Structure formats: structure tokens, C-alpha cells
């Protein structure tokens, strides 16, 4: 297990003339469960490969428990990495595949077998232990790949690079739950790369949200939802994402395009740049009193209904309360405690 720290870490690929990973300072605590979340091309896998040693950063340092490992190859970092597509030995049985990393390290047969059977049970492979890997489907093979990463309890960290991509959709929730349970039982540092917000938020204690090579926020799933530090986080996390409306701010009041005035929970100094008011659809409701809006349509999502509106000529998503019909002249009510102000995409701090 290891505490992983980055000091002014950055990376640019030769000839690109720009950063694939912008300079950062960050710490991942020992035995934490972290997710790297963001769209394709945002730098997630680049950062993961720097941690594993597959890629040496062009700037900065990587520290494991205070020791500089920046120049060390993967085999000297004591990490396990699980890739997007399964890597298994087809001629071996499931048991032999899972035991392979333990045999290479001279673990006694009895201890290795106990560990293999424990991990196989957690991954739903107990009945397949004596089957040849070549006879298994892609789902089971990826479970073997996951198991080989999890079977060692002496690693500094386990790195998962979008490991559920090839897994059948109905099995993904089950495997995420099992990985979470294994982390509770064996507290090793785990880093999980994904573009899927559901995977990230259900697996990780802390989520690292990335956009265009930059870490824009690190926080718990609750913090990312309740208080996005960047408009990208508000948009990327949540379904639908956060509503963002251009506005002007004076003290404790926001003035939207069209002249609508909204009282704010905090007072703000003079702000410059692109100013936006943000609120999640969960905290905006269709009502009989409030701001005048134009209703476009109602989306029934089963557990809730979303009203698609126009407010001052801008698209807006709000919740339609359970049991409420559509008012003939719909209005919009906003929870004042859930309003946020952003300046050039960054959360502006006001005074309560």
C-alpha cells in the first residue's frame, strides 16, 4: 500500500507543443479508493500510466510514501494494473491464472490457494476455478484479469483502466459492488479510470474530475454533486447536468437575460469575465408561483419527471413534483440554498 503524491507533475507528448496533462500537485492517501473521471482524451490514462511507470512525465515527480519513483520502471513500483481488455493465459485454468502473480513471488501454495479462492468467490468465479480460460466468455475473462490484479495483498496500488468496458451491462453494477466490498476487506490504494460517472461515483471515496488535461475538482461524490467547483463538473456529473444561465451579479442578486431577478444566498463582490448562475434540475421545480417559463415537453424517467423549459430564451431542466399536473401557466421555483455563481467557469466564493 502507498501514499501517492504528485509534485508539479505534467506531461507533453513530443512534437505536440502542448500539455496532455497540465501541471498539478495532488496527494492520494494510502488505502483510498479513487476514480479518474472525464471524457475521452482528457488525460486520465496518461496520468494512470505515469503512476504505473509505463510513461515517464516530462515534468515533475511521482512519490510513493515519500520516495521518488519517477524514473523507476513498472516492475520496481510494485503495482498491479488491470487493462480495458482482458489479459489472460488461455491454456491455464482460472485457478492457475489467479495464482500466477502469487507463484511468481514465492507465496506458499496453501496461502496462495486460500487467497485465490477468496478472490474467486468475490468475483463470482468459484465454480469456474478448474475450467480452462479458453472456454470462457469475455465477461469471465475480464473477471480473471480483475482477479489477478486483486489477488495480491502486498501491492502499493491497484490501477484499473476502464476495466468494465467489455463486461455485459447487467453485470457492471454487480462487479462494481464486489470491487467496493473487496476494497473494504483489503484496504489497498485503488485508482479506477472511467468516463462513466455512475462507475466513478459508486466505486470511489474521492473522484478526480479531469477536462482537457486539467484536474478541475477532487472531492467526494456528494461534494461534486452539491457544490461543483467548475461548470464542467456541474455539466458532466448529473443527468440532466446542471443548468447554467448567463447573468450579472450585484451583491446578493443575480439579474438574468430578460431582466429576471433572483435573490442569492451569498453576497458577491464585483465579478468580471463570463458570469453564470448554476442550479441542478433536482433543486428547480415546476410550480404555480415563481419565474415565468415556457414549457417545451415533459420527460418521464420512471422514478421522476423532468420538465424541459425555456427561461429567458435559454433551455432549462427542472423537476416536476410527484402527483403534480402541468400548470396552465407554468412557473419555476428555485431552491435559493442551491444556487451557485461561476466566473469564467470557476465557482465564485461569496459571503454567507
Automatic annotation (TrEMBL):
Q: Which SUPFAM superfamilies match?
A: MOP-like, P-loop containing nucleoside triphosphate hydrolases
The protein's GO terms of the molecular function aspect are: ATP binding
Residue ranges of the ABC transporter domain? Answer: 4-237
Q: Report whether Cell membrane shows up as a keyword of the record.
A: yes
Listed A to Z, the keywords are: ATP-binding, Cell membrane, Membrane, Nucleotide-binding, Transport
| KW Nucleotide-binding (keyword) present | yes
Taxonomically, which superkingdom? Bacteria
The cross-references to CDD domains, in alphabetical order and at most eight, read:
ABC_Carb_Solutes_like (cd03259)
Q: Which family does it belong to?
A: Belongs to the ABC transporter superfamily.
PANTHER family reported for this sequence: ABC TRANSPORTER ATP-BINDING PROTEIN (PTHR43875:SF14), MALTODEXTRIN IMPORT ATP-BINDING PROTEIN MSMX (PTHR43875)
For this entry, the protein name equals ABC transporter ATP-binding protein
The species this protein belongs to is Paracraurococcus lichenis
Q: What is the lineage of its organism?
A: Bacteria, Pseudomonadati, Pseudomonadota, Alphaproteobacteria, Acetobacterales
Amino acid at each position: 500500500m502507498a501514499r501517492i503524491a504528485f509534485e508539479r507533475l505534467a506531461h507533453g507528448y513530443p512534437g505536440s507543443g502542448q500539455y496532455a496533462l497540465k501541471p498539478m500537485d495532488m496527494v492520494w492517501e494510502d488505502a483510498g479508493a479513487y476514480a479518474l473521471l472525464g471524457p475521452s482524451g482528457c488525460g486520465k490514462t496518461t496520468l494512470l500510466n505515469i503512476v504505473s511507470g509505463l510513461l515517464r512525465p516530462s515534468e515533475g515527480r511521482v512519490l510513493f510514501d515519500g520516495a521518488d519513483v519517477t524514473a523507476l520502471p513498472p516492475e520496481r513500483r510494485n503495482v498491479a494494473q488491470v487493462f480495458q481488455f482482458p489479459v489472460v493465459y488461455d491454456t491455464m485454468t482460472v485457478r492457475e491464472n489467479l495464482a500466477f502473480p502469487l507463484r511468481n513471488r514465492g507465496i506458499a501454495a496453501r496461502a496462495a490457494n486460500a487467497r485465490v479462492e477468496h478472490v474467486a468467490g468475490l468475483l463470482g468465479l468459484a465454480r469456474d476455478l478448474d475450467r480452462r480460460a479458453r472456454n470462457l466468455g469475455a465477461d469471465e475473462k475480464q473477471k480473471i484479469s480483475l482477479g489477478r490484479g486483486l489477488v495480491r495483498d502486498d501491492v502499493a496500488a491497484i490501477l484499473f483502466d476502464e476495466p468494465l468496458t467489455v463486461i455485459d451491462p447487467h453485470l457492471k453494477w454487480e462487479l462494481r459492488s464486489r470491487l467496493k466490498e473487496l476494497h473494504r476487506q483489503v484496504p489497498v490504494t485503488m485508482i479506477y479510470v472511467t468516463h462513466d460517472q455512475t462507475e466513478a461515483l459508486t466505486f470511489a471515496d474521492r473522484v478526480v474530475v479531469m477536462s482537457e488535461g486539467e484536474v478541475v475538482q477532487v472531492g467526494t461524490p456528494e461534494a461534486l454533486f452539491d457544490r461543483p467547483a467548475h461548470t464542467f463538473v456541474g455539466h458532466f456529473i448529473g443527468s440532466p447536468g446542471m443548468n447554467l444561465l448567463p447573468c450579472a451579479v450585484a451583491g446578493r442578486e443575480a439579474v438574468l437575460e430578460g431582466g429576471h431577478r433572483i435573490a442569492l444566498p451569498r453576497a458577491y463582490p464585483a465579478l468580471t469575465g463570463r458570469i453564470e448562475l448554476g442550479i441542478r434540475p433536482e433543486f428547480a421545480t415546476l410550480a404555480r408561483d415563481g419565474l415565468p417559463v415556457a414549457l417545451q415537453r415533459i420527460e418521464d424517467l420512471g422514478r421522476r419527471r423532468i420538465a424541459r423549459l425555456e427561461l429567458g430564451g435559454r433551455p432549462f431542466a427542472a423537476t416536476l413534483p410527484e402527483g403534480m399536473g402541468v400548470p396552465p401557466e407554468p412557473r419555476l421555483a428555485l431552491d435559493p440554498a442551491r444556487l451557485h455563481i461561476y466566473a469564467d467557469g470557476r465557482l465564485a466564493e461569496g459571503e454567507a
